[in-house]
Fold this sequence. Notes:
Layout: H1 15-21, H2 23-27, H3 30-36, E1 43-47, H4 53-59, E2 64-69, H5 72-79, E3 84-87, E4 99-105, H6 114-124, E5 125-136, H7 142-154, H8 159-162, H9 170-179, E6 183-195, H10 200-207, H11 209-212, H12 217-235, E7 243-254
Parallel strand pairs: 1-2, 1-4, 2-3, 4-5
Antiparallel strand pairs: 5-7, 6-7
The structure holds benzoic acid.
Residues 106, 109, 136, 140-141, 165, 207, 246 line the site of benzoic acid (BEZ).
Amino acid sequence: xxxxxxxxxxxxxxxxxxxxxxxxxxELGAPVLALLDPRPHERILDLxxxxxxxxxxxxxxxxxxxxxxxxxxxxxAARARGLDARVVSGQALPFAAEFDAVFSNAALHWMQDAxxxxxxxxxxxxxxxxxxAEFGGGGNCARVQxxxxxxxxxxxxxxxxxxxxxxxxxxxxxxxxESHGFDVRYIEIIDxxxxxxxxxxxxxxVFAGTFFDVLTSDERAAVRAEITDLLQPTLxxxxxxxxxxxxxxxxxxxxxx
Length: 257
Ligand code: BEZ
């Protein structure tokens, strides 16, 4: 899920914390797995596999699955599930014409060099291979992102430089795919307000590490509380349930045969 390149802020992952507070990410991956429609003879690359929770379901449906992620900690968790999981940057995929499909759930928004990612996917696929993915699209978590930027800027930090996320529109991403030779069969932005298992502070602990890395531990607690107060009126329902403003970009594309 993480993807570290020298030019972009690097998110660190704690698999135990991820399993406790972000299990919903794999749970909500069912529709994109259905869109992939893996076949029993296929060899599939799972790009940005995280702790491998969804990869494990995919592996039960295909002949072979190679799972990659740039986080060594998440790859160790994926290997503990018995998966063929490797530490690889999604922005420097080393594969050549070996996969029937490349699959990715909730990972590509961590990879800001989208052209490098798509070029690597193209290289990794066999002729006629398909690319099926879902990740954060334009407007994803906009309220959370705006709150982070506002509060970090007020404390004298440059929030743009700390922001690791890439949330393209469907038009922008379609143009990129087509410029790399893909035939885009389906691409859609989907609003998906997402109930969180805990509060927004728990979400920040898992997903917003790069913004907090520049703060002292006292400041971290204060910023966590400020963001919670700022977002509570718009991101909780009448029962106090936190609902994050997720927007997905879901797509299926194919290379010429
Ligand atoms: C997402 O899955 O959409 C997401 C994850 C982390 C930060 C922002 C968005």
